[in-house]
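Q: What would this complex look like in 3D?
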Amino acid sequence: MAIPKVCGIETEYGIHAAGPDANPVTASSILVNAYAAEVDRRTGWDFEDESPDKDARGYAREGAMPPMVETHLANTVLTNGARYYVDHAHPEYSTPECVDALELVCHDKAGEEVLRRSMLAAASLPTAPVVVAYKNNSDGKGNSYGCHENYLMDRSVPFGNVVAGVIPHFVTRQIFTGAGKVGCETMAFGSEPPHFQISQRAEFFEEMVGLETTLKRPIVNTRDEPHADPKRFRRLHVIVGDANLAEVATFLKVGTTALVLAMIEDEMLPAKELALSDPVRAMHQVSADLGLGRPLRTADGSTMTALEMQWEIFAAAQGYAKERGLEVVGGEQVGEMVLDRWEAVLQGLESDPESLASQLDWVAKRRLVEGYRERHGCAWDDERLAALDLQYHDLRPERSLFARLAMERLVDEVAVREAVTEPPRRTRAWFRGRCLARWPDSVVTANWDSLVFDLGTDPLRRVPMMDPLKGTAEHTDALLEECGNPTELLDRLSS
Amino acid sequence: MAEREQKRRTAPSRTETEVVEETSPSSPRGEKLKADLDDLLDEIDEVLEDNAEEFVRNYVQKGGQ
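A: Here is my prediction, written as structure tokens for the whole assembly.
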């Protein structure tokens, strides 16, 4: 049975530091530490339950390279329940757990605001270099970094069903989730490199299923690290997405995927009819198909375009909503909003993609690039086009091209600013964030599924939070209100 | 629910006439979009980093997921 699609987004930001000795790890640490100092965050991350090398298929393939957990870099937990840290050579912002796509758009935008405030905080440090953050997925030279989504799933659903069900969606949802890219940077297209792609990230995928995230990237990532009760829950870790600035794109990326996963859990997605004969190749083909008309070969020997496949998935979702309701994707209101917007965007893509220039990143960027090309008569390899692409993603308000495009908003700026400090009310992020805000000196470490308190007496006390839907404002506000200090809280919780 | 079912799944031929008209460059909305883009392109060189070639060359991101 489908369970609520608690969801989150982790974004690795691109980073650039000026100066001959600029080092991306140092620059990332400067951003995270400058922000932590500014908001006075002292709570670190607890690595006890981290196991990114666990494979959802129950085994690790020979020669597979599981990701490593780095414990020595800047790492902090914020009062909104988010984690903000240095991962590899990037600042990474993991939103708190949200209950629906709209709430997640708000927290994803709050993440951008945290990065902007970090840049300002870093700029006020006397010796720090100028550090700039970009919300994109590649450097144009063959190096990619991720924007990962996470969704709560029912552990009892066989992982094979998840794989079969999500692949057609992950390959074809690019047509609205793509962030757009000038040129290409891998060998994915052989002798026909595209001048412009729908997706930043698609060409980096080389396998269908696997554990890696940095090499031989798979369309379905098998990392089995639920950050919750492993007997009941799975966390689907999605690594195929582009980092979106457009709110409509993020909303649809998350909203449609949550619906697809609910349909998989309830066995209502026609996965067999949608199966592709070569998903990895199709992934690349869709990214290069600006005309949205390229037929993709399906496993049953026929063909379907990405748009046709999205219409099929949409139709299934509509039937699902009618039969089962939309409670698991956050309720009727937001669920209907996902369906309406999904339909409108597919219609727009079908009739006139340009009409979506204020809603989708790839359409907006393409329009800008084409306009610039026309005006200056640039060849496709003109560096100014690459610069324009990069600056679309620049987070500095005075440099961001995205910020100048008057893109449609789904959440208001007041709510975004509030989400910089306030946790979502309907997940355990509430308890995490509230405890951090109230007792910053007593919470010594935190992670997704526990908090560790230092009450001044041995030993440290760990509070497990194994259910993402417990620890909400509704569950814990009265309790938090009644407790004057963390010792009282721990006593109440253990009694 | 029934209402949405009626409007879904339009064949490309049907919507083409409807929406293309609305946003073609000659329509008011199309004109506005074009004017906005022109304004942005007018000022874009002030926003773009000075030396595009160097800026692009220096943007290197090793070590990502």
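A: To summarize the key features: Helices of chain B lie at 2-7, 12-23, 28-47, 52-58. Chain B touches chain A at residues 1, 4-5, 7-10, 12, 15-16, 18-20, 22-23, 33, 36-38, 40-41, 44, 47-49, 52-53, 55-56, 58-65 (CB under 8 Å).
Q: Very helpful, thank you.
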